[in-house]
Amino acid sequence: MSIACTHTCLGSATRLIRGGGIALIALLFAACVSDKTVVLRYPSDLKLERRPSARAVTVFRFSDRRGDEGDSNPLRVGGIYGGYGNRLAKVYATTPWPEALVEDLATALGARGVETVAVKDQEYATGRTPVSTPLALAGEIRNFSTETRFTLQAHVSGIIRLYNQQGTLLLEKELSARMPRDSDSQWDKQASAHENMLNGAVRYFIHLVVMDSQVMQLLTSP
Question: Which long-range contacts (CB under 8 A, 24 or more apart) does 175-178 make?
Fold first, then answer.
């Protein structure tokens, strides 16, 4: 065997060993990353201004329009991903996020002085769902997740729809709340980073809803 051939063979073997080592490290790392669990918490917001003249509203369960992100599972709320986009682990909530979202919206609207009826187990169907209040709030969620993709972040977004009691659409609006890693929000020191990020994004999204000028104008108009 020639010297050139020997060097070529040795180089190929070295590359195989190195490649195998990298693959082995990746497999070991993936095996060590386990699924995460977060608790959805919405802290009372003392900064919300009360509107005593607001009309009552029924908050219905929002439709899940997250596509593949949620695996059609109301407990799935994110994931941890490798450098090539490969999923290493999933993030789950201890309670279904659609139910928590209805409760949180009802809490925030109540803090603004709005009498609220929370319907956690039913989506609103125009013209078919009976409503006992003058207004109904419904919609769909496109993003509801906390993820690690090179950096840690959380994103909650969707479309809110406000109807009158007869089912006429009064307002349709897209809202989006993102929480970057360097957010200066007040974190719960007892919670994980993923939990804090997601709860921060949820709080921001709810704040966008209940502080929206068009929403409040419709809630307070006669």
Answer: 175/205, 175/208, 175/209, 175/212, 176/143, 176/205, 177/201, 177/202, 177/204, 177/205, 177/207, 177/208, 178/153, 178/154, 178/204
DSSP code for 66: -
Q: Identify the H or E element spanning 91.
A: strand 87-93
Closest C-alpha to 39, from 91, 94, 111: 94
* Spatial separation of the C-alpha atoms in residues 108 and 51, rounded to whole Å: 12
Q: In this predicted model, what pLDDT tens digit does every residue of 163-208 receive, in sequence order?
A: 999 999 999 999 999 988 766 555 666 678 889 999 999 999 999 9
Chain centroid to Cα 42, Å, comes to 13
Angle at 56 between CA 50 and CA 113, to 5 degrees: 15
Q: Three-state SS for 175?
A: strand
Report pLDDT digits (tens) over 53-90.
899 999 999 999 998 777 889 999 998 888 777 888 99
